[in-house]
Amino acid sequence: MSWIKVVSRLDIMETVQSHPNHPLSNQENRIMIFLGGDVMTGRGIDQILPHPSEPFIPEFMVNDAREYVRLAEKANGTLATPVNFSYIWGDALEEWEQLAPDVKLINLETSITKSNDYWRGKGINYRMNPDNIACLTAAGIDCCALANNHVLDWGYSGLVETINTLKNVQIKTAGAGLNQQSAATPAIIDIKRKGRVVVFSFGVTTSGIPASWAAGQDKPGVNLLPNLSEPTVRYIQKQVEQVKQPGDVVIASLHWGGNWGYEIDQPQIDFAHQLIDYGGVDLIHGHSVHHVQGLEIYHEKLIIYGCGDLIDDYEGIVGYEPFRDDLGLMYFVSLDSTTGKLLNLHLLPTQIKRLRVQRASREDLLWLRKILNREGSRFRTQVQWSGHKTLTLEKLPTISSSSNR
Q1: Which terminus of the chain faces fewer neighbouring Cβ atoms within 10 Å, N or C?
Q2: For the residues of 105-149, what is the DSSP string, one character each?
Q3: Are 67 and 317 a contacting pair, CB within 8 Å?
Q4: Phi, psi (degrees; rounded to nearest 5) at 159
Q5: Is 232 helix (H, G, I), strand (E, B) or coil?
Q6: What's the chain's Rg over C-alpha atoms?
């Protein structure tokens, strides 16, 4: 069995103490990164915070963002609003404090702006009042990936205000900018005595990003990939080579694929593999789908094809119940900074309830285990439950042809 195994922090320490030559024993080379899926702090979430935006939203069926609060209250009880800025993170705050990741990275799928210049005909436009930015600082978010299909929901002025608002509170961004060069520039996070985490954020039109949102030479927009071809891999490889230094861990944060469905297209798999094989990427942070997808360990490096949602306002909305989009995972990824290889993955099952992140129940944890095992079989990964609040992941050994004789 491989050393690559997702375990609880207690299990990690016990393993290290009993095996001094275990890769985790060298803490100086160990970087822990928290990865969150889609974070949608607009619309209903924004409305329960201390400084809600004007509630108008240009949706086909709903024109008042407060309707999403009412749906959540109908499902799980009345909320005493406004809530404080840390409320929406719920049980996640304790996990962050206990595990103390070096970096917290999320995909922020919300425009942070007071702009009223909404993108017409889009159908869903997420906006959070900049005065509510403390909800992100309360979580200690270090970096936001912005190459997604909501960052321009409230126009180019909204994009500029989003970037400036995050910059003003020292939250780094990648994936969107005032031109193509700035949109493609990675976020670089220095970790004292450990190295750097370099975050590239890319968008793909399969996630719903309009092609017209691509940043240009003198045009604001997102870092949109033309396709998932080998030339695109070579383009990313050149970008990585320009910035990667010894001791750097490089993350490719990819907004790709549809919102619903467990199937992962072969071009996505091939692209992820090529980014690791040739592109200098150490970790794939995939998102867009609103529920978790299968996990892969490829050449001792982690690929998350779809993180699912960390926080949204879908509570009480009907139509996709079989996917259980209310359930998600908190991903605590530990890597060796000298090689970029996966040392440990701590998975905490969560549920979005009362518009906040809560630990999943035992029943829901077991449901997630079943789904992850079903979807992970394609990648020869499986998860186990140790009886605590976390799941453990194992990479199954490859079956050689000789073993079948």
Answers
A1: C
A2: EEEE-SEE-------TT-S---EE-GGGTHHHHTTT--EEE--SS
A3: no
A4: -65, -45
A5: helix
A6: 20
Q: What is the DSSP string of 290-343?
A: SS---EEEETTEEEES---EEE-S-TT--S-GGG-TTEEEEEEEEEETTT--EE
Range scoring the smallest mean pLDDT among 229-233, 274-278, 390-394: 390-394
Helices (DSSP H) in 104-263: which residue ranges?
134-137, 155-168, 180-184, 230-243
Alpha carbons 261 and 263: distance in angstroms, whole number = 6
19 pLDDT more than 90: no
Q: What CATH number is given for 9-397 in this structure?
A: 3.60.21.10
Instruction: Give the Cα separation of 249 and 245 in Å (integer).
Output: 9
Q: Is 235 exposed, middle or buried (0-12, 13-18, 19+ CB in 10 A)?
A: middle
Q: How many CB atoms neighbour CB 245 within 10 A?
A: 9
State how far the Cα of 188 lies from the Cα of 113, in Å rounded to an integer: 25
Whether the CB-CB separation of 289 and 259 falls below 8 Å is answered with yes
**What is the dihedral sign for C-alpha 101, 107, 109, 112?**
positive
What CA–CA distance (Å, rounded) separates 159 from 119?
A: 11
CB 103 within 8 A of CB 187: no
Tell me how far apart the alpha carbons of residues 128 and 150 are, in angstroms, rounded to a whole number: 11
Which uninterrupted H or E stretch holds 357? Answer: strand 357-359
Per-residue pLDDT at 4: 37
